[in-house]
Amino acid sequence: MADKALFEFLTRIGDTTLVLGHRVSEWCGHAPALEEDIALANTALDLIGHTRMWLSRAGEVEGKGRTEDDLAFLREAHEFRNYLLVERPNEDFAVTITRQFLFDAWHRLMLISLQESSDQRVSEIAEKASKEVAYHVERSTDLVVRLGDGTEESHRRMQHAVDILWPYTGELFTDDETDRELSDRGIIPLPSSLEGEWKTHVDGVLSAATLVRPEREYAHKGGKAGVHTEHLGFLLAEMQVTHRAHPGATW
What we know:
Blueprint: H1 4-25, H2 34-62, H3 68-73, H4 93-114, H5 120-148, H6 152-165, H7 177-184, H8 195-208, H9 230-245
Helix pairs in contact: 1-2, 1-7, 2-5, 4-5, 4-6, 4-8
Protein name: Phenylacetate-CoA oxygenase subunit PaaI
GO biological process, one term: phenylacetate catabolic process
Organism: Oricola cellulosilytica
């Protein structure tokens, strides 16, 4: 029998890395420096690699014969469970790096906790993904500090990025019925339990970057329940078009 709660969690984390991986990949050939172009492309590949593991496992848990490709390319926007933060448009390099940093700081903590999961496959996937995410955190942290405490223009853009993205971070730490059930079973940590350590790390980095964290605590929510911004529909149209136009095609 399908484990609905576990399937829900696996699609949440798998959809999140999938959507962010696609967003980051949009910089390929467009980054402000060759080094960043390569680094962003590698980050996107890492995230897509994580997606394959999470969504493959989700398909197994669901028990309906759907593969990672089916889940990635043949679902509509309302069926996706990614956090709203990762579907935000790139806008500019400052927004991209700030979004990455805010996500990376959460991603690292989540994966560390998931390594202790009572579900062996979840634990194994988290352990494998953690090695790459440790680098993601180091890189995005360094860039936030360098750009925040850089020129007047880079500081202005980074502060703007923090201001517009902060309201989308609260959803990362919002508990719901699925979270509570899986936490009781020892499979995942309660998202809210990660918030204190995340804020400590983020506040330290923002301080070093001479950036100010917004005081408001309002949080945009809905992604975990399939309620998304208009941006996801456009992203999926681009991401899914080839697969849908040529069903069953192979290399």
